[in-house]
Each structure stands twice: as C-alpha cells, then as structure tokens.
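input
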Amino acid sequence: MRHSAEMKAEIDNRFHLKPVAKLVPLSQIPLNRMVRIEHLEGPREDCDRLLDLGFTPGEEVVITHHAPLGEPVVVRVRGALLALRKREAAWIWVNLV
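output
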C-alpha cells in the first residue's frame, strides 16, 4: 500500500521524539555531576588510551575532584578514580544524565 504525501504529512508527528541533547566536553562539567560519555574526539593514540582506561561511549562518569589550579581533574569511571589533564577531558564529549 502506497501512502500519498498528504497522508505522510498527516501522520508525521514529532512529539514522540526526544529533544536533541547538548553535548559538552567533560572538562566543562562541574564537580559531582553524573554524565554519560557520547564519543571521544581527539588525537587517535590518545583517544585509544582513554578507551583502554574505560572511557567508552555509554559509560557514566563523574568528576570527583579538581586540583587547586584546576588541573588535573579526578574522574570516577567504572568504580576507579583516574586523573586526567584538562586537554584530555576536553576530548571526551558527554551528555548530562
């Protein structure tokens, strides 16, 4: 059964769609805010290292500490606490949970 353009427009209801989430780099997240990793964007070797450490898409993380000058930041991922430089945290794009 073929639908005409009029039928398609009538059925096209976007109320069921989720709002588009705003992605931000992990380096801009405040302390103790739970976020979900969406993707990594940076130098390939460094992103591969972050993936090996557990910073994988879909994983929930939280920044637990900042050093006095703001760097490094301590991130809880998969139950482990890991220190990252601000530039490394900027490669991890997250969505608020």
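quick obs: The chain has three helices and six strands.
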